[in-house]
Design brief:
Length: 59
C-alpha cells in the first residue's frame, strides 16, 4: 500500500505512506491551532511555506 486514504462525511484525502519509523506532518491541517501560537508558526515555517506554496512563500 503506497497511499493512505482518509474518509469523513463523503470527503476523502490521500497522502503518500511514509516508511516505518518515518514521520510526515501536514502542518496545513493545523492552521487553526497554529494561528493561536505564533512561536509555533516560526518553528514550522519552512515546512509550512513549502506546503502552502505561492503566494505564501513570497511572504
Amino acid at each position: 500500500m503506497d497511499e493512505l486514504t482518509l474518509s469523513c462525511r463523503g470527503e476523502q484525502v490521500s497522502h503518500p505512506r511514509v516508511r516505518f519509523g518515518g514521520r510526515r506532518v501536514r502542518y496545513r491541517h493545523y492552521l487553526a491551532e497554529l494561528s493561536r501560537k505564533p512561536q509555533a508558526v516560526r518553528q514550522v515555517d519552512p515546512e509550512l511555506m513549502s506546503e502552502l506554496g505561492e503566494p505564501f512563500a513570497r511572504l
